[in-house]
Amino acid sequence: MLKIENLHASIEDKEILKGLGIEVKPGEVHAIMGPNGAGKSTLSSVIAGREEYEVTEGSIEFEGEDINELEADERAHKGIFMSFQYPVEIPGISVTNFIKTAINSNRKAQGLEDMPANEMLKKIKEKAALLDIDMKFLSRSLNEGFSGGEKKRNEIFQMAMLEPKLAILDETDSGLDIDALKIVANGVNKLKSADNAVIVITHYQRLLDYIVPDFVHVLFDGKIVKSGTKELALELEAKGYDWIKQEVTA
Amino acid sequence: MNLKDKLATSFSVLENQIGGTDPVSNIRTNAIKQFETLGFPTKKLEAWKYTSLNSVLKPDYNVFAKKEKALEYKDVKQYFIHNIETYKIVFIDGVYSAQLSETSHEGLDVCLMSEALSKPKYKEVIETYFNKIAKEDDSLTSLNTAFTKEGAYIYIPKSKVVEKPVEIIHFATGVEDALLIQPRNLVVVEENAQVQIIERHQSLTAHPVLTNSVTEMFVAENAVLDYYKIQNDLQSASLIDNTYISQKRQSNASVHTFSFGGKLTRNNLNFFHKGEYIDSTMKGITILSDKQHVDHYTLVDHAEPNCESHQDYKSIFADKSVGVFNGKIYVNRIAQKTNAFQQNNNILLDDTATINTKPQLEIFADDVKCSHGCTIGQLDTEAMFYLKTRGIPEKEAKGLLTYAFANNVLESVRIPEVKTRINKLIAQKLGVDLGFNF
Ligand SMILES: Nc1ncnc2c1ncn2[C@@H]1O[C@H](COP(=O)(O)OP(=O)(O)OP(=O)(O)O)[C@@H](O)[C@H]1O
Ligand SMILES: [Mg+2]
User: Could you say which protein family the record assigns here (chain B) (predicted)?
Assistant: First the structure.
């Protein structure tokens, strides 16, 4: 589904990703861990198509197609979704109106008519219920004044509405209380199928108890330096990153 | 003949036409002298520093339309707030259209300036209010005063709460190659009365149209006036709007100006306080493209204690459009406990667009709360990216962010249908389907 090879990406002439590779197949869950500043959010932004990052080398393929030249919205139309580590506050536009615009933009790209209002409402209600979100909450301005946890839950609500093929969840767990973590993880699991895939970026093993990964990767200094199964996450939790740094620099 | 000379000649013609019955004859004569002395404003004047009238004064305007053209309601329905009941005062090329209008004398007067000037029963009101707050040292206002002939006359007696909004619409049809229209409106809202007015100037022709409008409004004790200006004219039309509002104790007046169209628009908006506990609101959404030019020039004269004024202008400029915001707040020495707020936020979508913004606070009282904030920025790239990752294309994302930026100005609009209409005009102006109903 997603195949990244030797990816180099820079921002303002500073190279952040330095030859990164990863392959994600349909039905898989991948976890990416790594110290602060390693390039995890950069990787998700580059996959999602943030223009400020320049890909200087390597390739990103999605479903066999090189997507490097595609705009962020075109990547979304292909089924790529990114849950932001820091969701953007947009005063003046409600969550509901935002998601309606997003859904209909995606449908338009697929050559479909706007989703009928009643169908839209039904879907919104259903997904809000899945994530235990109060309908009143959805009439508030997008992310404006939302608590950290509310922002994250709202990201997953959008994911649930858009039903992407590949979801990249960048530290969705940070800011969530324990109950919310379970609700959100449960939501993600419910949306999981053999046809779609998830990349979870996290600092904590705890999330991986709920969203169980098939693979765990360590991203360090712009590269994937170690990959393994879920046991690797436990090992990182116990030992930190020093031993990896030593392995890398050795 | 240049326009100034032509105006002098036309003035003589008008005087002869009206003859000795004219109750405002002296005012008129003084005004034309005033105009002749001052001439058209130029960029040399501080108040016109960023707005040149040169190009709009060039066409050979007819000062009065000589030909007539009728319009069918169905052809112009779209310019009315047609999904609600309204009073209508409609002019075609400056001439009253009885066919399109719905005036009234039942419990109020929603009628014509020409009527008020010619009938004895209005004499007292005319004597009390006409040309009492319009600025004489403003040459364009004086020009309008000199040519006072037609416009809206609205008189709301004590305690009358008018249920239906009043629509004032001016159409220009292009029967003349170039037309100068000078509407003169008078609005009197007596104690405890309430009225809502919607105004629109709409050209239907590629021929140049210049409107120089003056509106005087008097809001008595405890009265409420809401005034909505929809400026979405064709590229061939320019507008100079001079609005003067005088408020008495505990009255509430609001003016919302929505500027999306026209070649050049200048809005001179003046509030004068004549009592305590007055509330004045000035709000605006301006969205410009191409080479459009809009200049908002506001003045609030806080002459009395315990009054409030709220200004919030949000503007978006694309292409080579130019905006000017000049907001003057004057707080008199005795106007203690004044609350005056002014906000002017601008977004430049292209680096070829320009905004000149200048808040002017002159505060002579010490116990006051005055604030002003002015921002000029671009759309947030982070927010753009966020929207695009949700599948919203660049153009729609821009539209949505622009809409989000401006739409809180609509919160204070008290006619839902006007709100919906403005939302639609915004979407239309931005060239996007925002994907939802407002
Ligand atoms: N605009 C920029 N200019 C310069 N450096 C940048 C810019 N944006 C990000 N960086 C740098 O890129 C590096 C990688 O940042 P990134 O956000 O991808 O890290 P991360 O792995 O997600 O970290 P965290 O765990 O703290 O979220 C950091 O050193 C950061 O300072
Ligand atoms: Mg990060």
Answer: Belongs to the iron-sulfur cluster assembly SufBD family.
